[in-house]
Every structure is written in C-alpha cells, then in structure tokens.
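User: Could you check the structure of this?
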Amino acid sequence: MNTPGTEGNGLPDLPPEWGRVVVPDDASALAQEAAQVRRELRERARLATRKRLTALRMPLVWLVVAVLITLAGLAAVTRPGPAPAPATSPAAPPATLSGRPLPALDLVDAGQDPVPLRGLLPAMIILVDGCACPERVSEAAAATPPEVNLVAVTGGRSVPSAPPAGGTGVRTLADPAGGLRSFLHLSPRPDAAVAVLVDRSGVVVRVLPELGPVEAYRADLDRLAA
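Assistant: Sure, the predicted structure tokens are below.
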C-alpha cells in the first residue's frame, strides 16, 4: 500500500508541498538540474562574500583615516621648532670693539651744524639717549682731565641748551642717524648710560656698557690724557 507522498515508489514520506517526486532510473538525467543548482549556490556564495566585504569596507576606511590623523598630530607635536636665538645681555658689547678704530661719524650741535666726532679726540663719549643719568655724567665731568673731551650724545636731532648734568666741561651733541649706537651694537636703556673711551689716534680703548663709579674707569682717563 502506498503512503501519501510516495506514490508507490518506495521513498519515505515527503512533505506534501513538495508535490509529486519522480526519481529517474538514470541519474544523468538530473545533470542539467544539478548544474543549475551549483550555479545558484555559487552565485549565493558570491553575493554573501560581497555583502561581507561591503560591510567591512567602511570601518576599514574610517580606521585608516583615524590612523592618518593620529600620525599627522604626532608629527606636528614632535616636529622640532626653530632653534631659539642665543640669549644676549643688552649690556654686553662685542669684545672686539676695544682696539678698533672709531668710525668717522658726524654729529650735530644745537645749531644743527655737523661736528666730526673724530675731531674731538681724545674723548670720553657718553650716550645719554636712553638715560640722562645726571649723577654719573657729573662724576665723569669732575674726573675727566683737561686734555680729554667729555661728550654727551643724545638721540634724534634735538640738543639741549644745557649740559645733561647741568655742569661744565661737557659738550652735548646729537646723533640723528644713530651711527654710534649701531657701532656699539647696544640698545638704549632707561637705567644706564653707555660710555666709550677713545684715544687721540681714534682707537677705542674701552666700552662701558653701564657707566658706573669713576674708580671703574679713572685709569683709562689718565691713559687718554697721557
């Protein structure tokens, strides 16, 4: 007796929705259907692989972008900056100034007439464009021998009618071009005056970046007067 779904072909019960199942005597008759099934299986496998790659693509892209951003940030942080300029003291003139000739500079007097600086040698030249320093100028005027000229140099073109210290023996001139400052490589300071001692041959004997007590340069004044 046949059971439902077998139709007497000796097969076990199969789901009714499969319909009528016919098993051929020759298996080669199913070659075409088998090839089609294999193609469908391969196509499904390709589609599944493509879906997996598509799902992984965006996370990989974001991972690469994050790595590049991190590397760029590290490069910006670790990149060496420009080497800092060596610290220099504003009160330290070049050591080579002593023994060098004084440039042929023309200063101006109160009447705006040019005065060759080398025509006043030997001289002690005090730059008072940053600090008038009247006490130090007065001390220098009192200690300067008659054979040595004491010159106070201001900035700009204006020359005060009275000496900076209000005393005598000081000739005040202006350096509108700033040539003396350029030669000394010293910037004006509000708390100190700069002094330059030059002998009669025009050679710089000493540079005082900060004019101090007379005892610090009295021997140089005697040398200029000799």
